[in-house]
């Protein structure tokens, strides 16, 4: 067997099919583009759909790729089996109506057995075929496969319902008897069975039928080949690995995890599962975040969050405290750099995202695991078979524990989770969220009504804001297509229009519809895109209209101009953010109104005032440089070559608009813009906040709104100066410093007096020592201003060794605070401060906890403080 690395194997596969006339397609992003049916790219063929369904004709019908893919349907099995993964690479060769069964089999045999390529022993290869597929069996014989190495299998037929389908052939590698995990007479002990000896490495699908609605199968006029070879499995064969995890695709992460944990891989089967989970998940999250996905509570973001949390929990099982997963990101990048150099290049950003999410989870993980372990113990103690669904939901809702993690953790202990109970609690939460939402605007017209409207409409607003004669082609009123409308609201399509339809975060134009002699017919309150691309105007009618009428259309120029300024400013802001934070920063949404702009962007980590000042300065610098703003129409590929930034979330047609602000900013954009940056006048950031994990929001104003905002701030500062009796605004900082010094002095004096008072009270309380059940107790309610002062009293008590147990309470505002301390002798006798605080906190309607030597609690019932002191005495009385 040749000694090859994973990168050499991948490249050999691609080179082979390139030599057979195939075009090598690059590995596409894990985030599907224009395919809402997929959460992730989950196979090589998923990126080829457009070719197989005929929507796009490939320049070359022969294609090959090594496609990174994610599947999470069997996530619970990852780490527990030899070959389950979340992220994997699928090597594939594809024929779109070109070669078919005979050539596909010849190619496969040559790649696998030729000494120029893989060079595997032919005697170790077995093929399964569909029993009725005589051609496949014949072609395998022709290339030299022995009869007893061809196995018929009824399930060798690829069929997902209506659509293309056909038989397939699978190729298995015989790893030898040493890998056999079954007895000789086991019915699964054959190539194609569920066993460890015969490893499936390649599946070749012969797409030759169309599964008709009536259940019949008709031959396709154009037959296709779709194949899939798991790189991880092939590498395990070349590297003689027991499982996929003992290969160079996973071992770097496993070895690094050994260093983090102090544990050794391949010494304990239970620990090995955790090593494998961490190695697998670190790869998946690194690639997913590198392709633009971010942790969140839904969709693919939830998958990332779940993988991170599952890995962190397994790190805890290995004894790793604190963040570690983010440190594996560059290890993944280094291991995969031969084919995916961008991962290593972006590893700092990816690690930052992972660290942020990891830190968030670690904050609650310990408490969550403690509660989960208690639930498991209580469930076992009560001889129950499942964890209560409401408790599982509490873990999810309060501690961020995905129910899948709870299920897995519980399964390790032999118990289940009440799934129905959990789902009932989840539904209650959904109902609460639903009832909190506002009703949608009822003005919208069902899209299916509009689908049939195909009359053309031309948008001319890029060059003119007035149309002298626009003809009404379609009217929708009261949810119906009508020929005329006379009052209220109606939605109208004109044959041409200067009104911009809302798109890409830019709000729609407003304006008027008038007769030729200037009589107002309607106000344009909104414009949206109809399903077939026309601009659909919402009109507030003041006079009747009917199909065929011609009117003058006028855009509100002031409104339009302000929106243009703000929209162009978002382009400057987008690039300024990249300049300051790095190229990983991407637009995550925007809203462009006439009076302000809102811009969301991806960024993990702190955004400082200094950072914002840099961003703001860059934008204003470009405004003051008076840079021309130009727009050209071209095709997407040419636009990308020009350096234009495109968004994955946007769908681009055959013709795109590329908006350039000098050489500073180049973007695909269908919005409207100023002709020169000097028209923006001024740019001012009003606020910057985080709106989710890894997503932040800037709100800003331009031109006159920026002036008004700054003027308002100036007036506010003048008002502060007057209040502070500062002669001039410039004296405000000095006056504030003086006042702070006075406040600091007064605070110090107040704290000194409080400490003196607390000392006097302590002297009185510390004298009252009672002996209960052989232990000495000091307890009482004191008048201090904070929990800090209670802790100071406890420090004094401990230094003087005044008793075995100390219990103090105080009222701060409308709340009660409790503190319990235990001496070393008391703890040796089994008395723990944490246990005592839990016993007395309910008296003040509160709860708390802490260490064995010191614990504290808070509550909402100060009137119960004396009862808490009495409860402490009773608790000591009851201690054995």
From TrEMBL:
**CDD domains, per the entry:** AlaRS_core
Q: Which residues, by range, are in coiled-coil regions?
A: 736-763
The reaction(s) catalysed by this protein are: tRNA(Ala) + L-alanine + ATP = L-alanyl-tRNA(Ala) + AMP + diphosphate
User: What Gene3D superfamilies would the database entry show?
Assistant: 2.40.30.130, 3.10.310.40, 3.30.54.20, 6.10.250.550, Bira Bifunctional Protein, Domain 2 (3.30.930.10), Threonyl-trna Synthetase, Chain A, domain 2 (3.30.980.10)
Question: Which parts of the sequence bind Zn(2+)?
Answer: 567, 571, 669, 673
Superkingdom of the organism of origin: Bacteria
Q: Which GO terms describe its cellular component?
A: cytosol
Swiss-Prot/TrEMBL cofactor(s): Zn(2+)
List the EC numbers from the record: 6.1.1.7
Question: Which PROSITE patterns does the UniProt record give?
Answer: AA_TRNA_LIGASE_II_ALA
Q: What's a Pfam family in this record?
A: tRNA_SAD
Q: Where in the cell is it found?
A: Cytoplasm
Which UniProt key words apply to this protein? Aminoacyl-tRNA synthetase, ATP-binding, Coiled coil, Cytoplasm, Ligase, Metal-binding, Nucleotide-binding, Protein biosynthesis, RNA-binding, tRNA-binding, Zinc
Record text on cofactor binding: Binds 1 zinc ion per subunit.
A single GO BP: alanyl-tRNA aminoacylation
What GO MF terms are annotated?
Answer: alanine-tRNA ligase activity; aminoacyl-tRNA deacylase activity; ATP binding; catalytic activity, acting on a protein; transferase activity; tRNA binding; zinc ion binding
Question: Domain Alanyl-transfer RNA synthetases family profile, which positions?
Answer: 4-712
Q: What is its main location?
A: cytoplasm
Q: Does the keyword Transmembrane apply?
A: no
Q: Which HAMAP family match?
A: Ala_tRNA_synth_B (MF_00036_B)
Question: What does UniProt say about this protein's domains?
Answer: Consists of three domains; the N-terminal catalytic domain, the editing domain and the C-terminal C-Ala domain. The editing domain removes incorrectly charged amino acids, while the C-Ala domain, along with tRNA(Ala), serves as a bridge to cooperatively bring together the editing and aminoacylation centers thus stimulating deacylation of misacylated tRNAs.
Protein family (similarity comment): Belongs to the class-II aminoacyl-tRNA synthetase family.
Name the job this protein performs: Catalyzes the attachment of alanine to tRNA(Ala) in a two-step reaction: alanine is first activated by ATP to form Ala-AMP and then transferred to the acceptor end of tRNA(Ala). Also edits incorrectly charged Ser-tRNA(Ala) and Gly-tRNA(Ala) via its editing domain.
Protein's name according to its UniProt entry: Alanine--tRNA ligase
